[in-house]
């Protein structure tokens, strides 16, 4: 190490070590106000060794690094503090300050002594002009001898740790969420910042510390190294391959992701590969395509797990959780799954979420008829209008996305309503409401945002919930011992759960084997267990939707089911009664706008449930398909739309069964997402010459419970 630039390690407390640099350059010299109990001064070599040791230790997150760097030829003080990198422009010393050589530090006066104390309010304590970058948002860190070299993707072959460092440039690639307006606050973009320091030892130390912190942070530990990518070249505008090459591959390279790509050659190929191939060398599965492609991946992974566990594929006793998480890159026509996950169908945003590694559990619904499990649904299962659109539009795929508009008008005009009977067990909405259609509630239910409380409660209760459900034997026992009938009640008391949390703890019908899946079986079983009655609704419907997620898309930014949550284990059943043509039009316009709320329409009912059963009235039994074939069952009229029965639209695919049960499985699949954000005005930075940076990623995240 250069003797001109010795390191001084200040040990403030047993929990802290601050490494400061002193240099002959007055602009880069600093003393400190921190040194309350500073035990000091180690040799340069010892400090470097200590630093690299601490970098490799898991507990390195308690260290603080503070150095001066140059950024665009301006001097900055840069601090690595817990999970944050903070940098602040060094001001030229004023006359009064020149006498007092102490430079203002970005840490608060009252320096907390432990990381816990620094905790969540640490970001508010930095200087007003500080730029704060959260570790969760860092994609990669690389040093280089030149700025250009530091911009290259990470080098897999690192020089030995004891080699003399030469690199003076340190580039941090990170993701930033753009918060431009209420309608554009969910796009993320890639940013980079390059710091320069004449001392290569400091640069190396920073890189080591940053990498160690990234690896030990919860999100960093989840980052993907080996990815299996399926590209559907057929979906949307048939631009899946170009989308991947142009926008996604460079980002994966930058993050050092080793991606194996397969371009599909036929429908259902993804599912077949996932069912039969060895996937042990992959950390995750990624698909580039629309909702149909995502559904193929989810179906493939869940059925694979069912096979691995040797469960009955037609009537599994329970639905197991696949081990691999799923990444989705939008390249379809509507891309509602991606839009609902991120609040945008922007390709870069979706790719950036894969790089950042943060995952959330996504509910997946199973769709079954009275005889067997048919498939899994990630977005919406819809009968009537949307079912007709799906069946119709397949014939006009050559039109591209216009086929939906054409088929939409045709299906709308020919819709005479469909007779149906539905059975469901209603779940209360948030806030707790009477067991009634949502349309009569005074307060709107919560919207699912990043850090959604409702979903995180559902996630944290997963373990407890599984042990709460009685097996068939336990269930019989409970009938003989009525005191044990309310395990949730006693648990609620122990855990002091709120009403909405209690609702999430309710026993679920989906734990029953599928052979008991007739409405009658459910009705009697659950009435006995929870003391609730199944609701039976009959009528003539323009459309029936079981929405697993909001189903938002560019055309319908709030989605058809605005208040659906991504991972609460519930689905929203939306019933649109057949009334007048004008009312049907009102409904469609309402879903298209940002301000609309279908719950305000008198002919629309929304029920939150974990499971519902549907059957047509007077349906001929012998026409039920077993596996949900794509063929229409009953004869269609001359327009291709059957006037008496519709078909189901399941994630854009056509299912023709007329006796269907849809059940939600809480957070069955892990997907790379944080959830959409609500708009909040970005912090204004006074120093305009400085690069703009995001507030801490967690600062951008709000609770779901506001609209
Ligand atoms: N090479 C291929 N040739 C034909 N069909 C394919 C091929 N690869 C995949 N498919 C099928 O194409 C169908 C449509 O794909 P996808 O749903 O991704 O696009 P989309 O329908 O345009 O988008 P969205 O569902 O978002 O509206 C899927 O059912 C998928 O199984």
Automatic annotation (TrEMBL):
BP-aspect Gene Ontology terms: ceramide metabolic process
InterPro entries, sorted: ATP-NAD_kinase_N (IPR017438), CERK_C (IPR045363), CERK_PH (IPR057465), Diacylglycerol_kinase_cat_dom (IPR001206), Lipid_Phosphate_FormReg (IPR050187), NAD/diacylglycerol_kinase_sf (IPR016064)
GO molecular function, one term: ceramide kinase activity
Pfam families attached to this UniProt entry: CERK_C (PF19280), DAGK_cat (PF00781), PH_CERK (PF25382)
Entry annotated with the keyword Kinase: yes
Location of the DAGKc domain: 222-372
The entry's keywords: Kinase, Transferase
Region (Disordered): 95-122
Residue ranges with Polar residues bias: 113-122
Cellular component, GO annotation: membrane
Domain of life: Eukaryota
Record PANTHER family: CERAMIDE KINASE, ISOFORM A, SPHINGOSINE KINASE
Protein name: LOW QUALITY PROTEIN: ceramide kinase
Species the sequence originates in: Drosophila albomicans
């Amino acid at each position: 190490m250069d003797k001109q630039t010795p390191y001084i390690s200040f040990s403030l407390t047993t929990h802290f070590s601050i490494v400061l640099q002193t240099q002959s350059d007055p602009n880069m010299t600093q003393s400190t106000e921190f040194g309350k109990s500073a035990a000091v001064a180690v040799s340069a070599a010892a400090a470097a060794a200590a630093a690299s040791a601490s970098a490799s230790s898991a507990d390195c997150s308690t260290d603080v690094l503070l150095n001066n760097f140059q950024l665009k030829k301006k001097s900055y003080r840069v601090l690595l503090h817990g999970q944050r990198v903070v940098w602040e422009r060094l001001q030229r010393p004023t006359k009064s300050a020149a006498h007092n050589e102490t430079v203002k530090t970005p840490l608060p006066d009252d320096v907390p002594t432990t990381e816990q104390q620094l905790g969540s309010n640490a970001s508010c304590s930095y200087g007003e002009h500080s730029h704060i970058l959260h570790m969760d948002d860092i994609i990669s860190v690389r040093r280089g001898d030149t700025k250009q070299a530091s911009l290259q993707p990470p080098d897999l072959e690192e020089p030995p740790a004891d080699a003399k460092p030469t690199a003076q440039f340190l580039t941090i690639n990170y993701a930033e969420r753009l918060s431009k307006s209420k309608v554009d606050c969910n796009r993320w973009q890639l940013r980079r910042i390059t710091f320069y320091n004449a001392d290569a030892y400091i640069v190396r130390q920073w890189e080591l510390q940053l990498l160690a912190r990234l690896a030990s942070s919860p999100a960093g530990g989840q980052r993907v190294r080996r990815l299996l990518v399926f590209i559907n070249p057929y979906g949307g505008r048939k631009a899946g391959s170009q989308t991947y090459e142009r926008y996604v591959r460079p980002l994966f390279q930058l993050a050092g992701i080793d991606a194996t790509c397969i371009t599909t050659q036929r429908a259902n190929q993804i599912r077949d590969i996932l069912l039969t191939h060895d996937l042990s060398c992959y950390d995750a599965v990624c698909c580039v395509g629309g909702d149909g492609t995502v559904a193929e991946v989810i179906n493939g992974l869940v059925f694979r797990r069912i096979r691995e566990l040797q469960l009955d594929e037609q009537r599994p006793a329970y639905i197991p959780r696949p081990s691999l998480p799923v990444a989705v890159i939008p390249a379809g026509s509507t891309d509602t799954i991606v839009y609902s996950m991120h609040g945008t169908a922007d390709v870069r945003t979706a790719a950036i979420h894969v790089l950042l590694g943060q995952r959330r559990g996504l509910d997946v619904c199973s769709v079954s008829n009275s005889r067997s499990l048919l498939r899994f649904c990630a977005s919406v299962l819809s009968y009537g209008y949307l079912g007709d659109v799906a069946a119709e539009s397949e014939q006009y795929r050559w039109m591209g996305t216009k086929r939906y508009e054409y088929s939409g008008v045709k299906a709308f005009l020919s819709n005479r309503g469909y007779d149906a009977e539905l059975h469901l067990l209603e779940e209360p909405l948030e806030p707790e409401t009477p067991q009634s259609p949502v349309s009569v509630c005074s307060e709107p239910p919560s919207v699912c945002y990043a850090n959604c409380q409702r979903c995180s409660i559902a996630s944290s209760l997963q373990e407890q919930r599984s042990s709460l459900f009685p097996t068939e034997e336990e269930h019989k026992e409970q009938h003989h011992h009525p005191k044990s009938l309310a395990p949730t009640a006693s648990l609620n008391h122990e855990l002091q759960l709120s009403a909405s949390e209690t609702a999430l703890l309710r026993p679920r019908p989906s734990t029953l084997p599928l052979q008991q899946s007739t409405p009658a079986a459910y009705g009697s079983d659950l009435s006995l267990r929870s003391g609730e009655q199944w609701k039976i609704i009959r009528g003539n419907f323009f459309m029936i939707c079981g929405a697993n997620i909001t189903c938002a898309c560019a055309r319908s930014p709030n989605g058809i089911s605005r208040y659906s949550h991504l991972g609460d284990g519930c689905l929203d059943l939306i019933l649109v009664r057949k009334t007048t043509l004008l009312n049907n039009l009102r409904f469609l316009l309402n879903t298209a706008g940002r301000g609309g709320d279908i719950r305000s329409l008198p002919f629309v009912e929304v029920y939150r449930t974990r499971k519902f059963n549907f059957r047509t009235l007077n349906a001929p039994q012998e026409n039920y398909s077993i596996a949900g074939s794509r063929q229409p069952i009953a004869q269609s009229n001359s327009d291709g739309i059957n006037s008496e029965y519709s078909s189901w639209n399941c994630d854009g695919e056509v299912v023709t069964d007329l006796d269907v049960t849809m059940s939600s499985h809480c957070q069955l699949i892990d997907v790379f997402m944080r959830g959409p954000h609500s708009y909040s005005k970005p912090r204004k930075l006074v120093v305009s010459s400085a690069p703009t940076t995001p507030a801490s990623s967690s600062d951008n995240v709000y609770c779901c419970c506001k609209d």
